[in-house]
Every structure is written in C-alpha cells, then in structure tokens.
Amino acid sequence: MSKHYIRLSGIFITKVFSDAFEEAETGDICINEEGQRHFEYNGVTNPTIMDGIYCIYKYTNNEIVPCTKEEQVTLEQRFKDFESTLDAFIDQTAKDKGYDSRITATMYAGSENQYKEESQAFISWMALCYAYVYNTMNLIIAGTKELPTEAELLAELPRIVWP
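RESULT FIELD:
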C-alpha cells in the first residue's frame, strides 16, 4: 500500500503524488493512507491538476473540490507573485548589507569608489537570480518542473558572495 499526497499553494492543489515514487515534504497533505502504487482520485490514476495555466482543484474543508472559474489561479499570476517575491528578496539582501535598496547597491559599480566591488558583485548576483527565476518559469510552462512555492523558489536561488 502507498500513501497519496497533495501539495498546495494556498488552497490550490499544485501537485499530487504517491509515496511509492516521491517522499512527502513538510506541508504535504496525506489524503489516502492505503492507496495503490499510483496516485488516484475519483477513479482516475495520476489526474491532471492543471488545465493549461489554470489550477483545476482546491482543497477546502479536508476535501478536494473543483475550482470555480473565478477561483482559478493562472500561472501568469503565480509568476507575478514570484517576481514580487524576488524583488523583495533582492531589496532585503541589499538592506542586510547596509544599502537602502537594490538601486543604491548597484549605483557604485560604474565609478572608482570603496563600494565598487560590492556593487559589481551585487549586480552579477542579481542577474543570476532573475535568470534563474525566468528559466524556472519556462520549465514550468514546458511541464518539466513542478510549480514551487515561493519559499521553495527562494531556497533554490544562488547565494550572494560579497567581496
């Protein structure tokens, strides 16, 4: 027997799986402790959980139910959320180093001053972060990567190395 799990983004189901193939993570919800090898819901093995760019199901009151059209979360909105989260993360990284924002952290790169190396390192790191997020979005659209939570996405980003 296998356990069947769902993974959520808010109330929306972004992934379904069986522990026969994948280990559950913190926050995953077991919806069937005595399931078959493959995830099954309403008699459908490995059901589709996304319709193009829309989540099809949500989890409320300990139940999987179809999303209404008004509730459907588009990947476009999730990507906007990712960008906002990344922007805040980059600004916070600059503030943690003593700069007011990413703008202040980047403005010293073009001239000789005591902050030039830090500024150049910050710009290079910031470009890597944006490239990673946009590449992740393309992989999600292509269906080769699962939709991560915002926390998972931030954990995957490269870490800055200050000079």
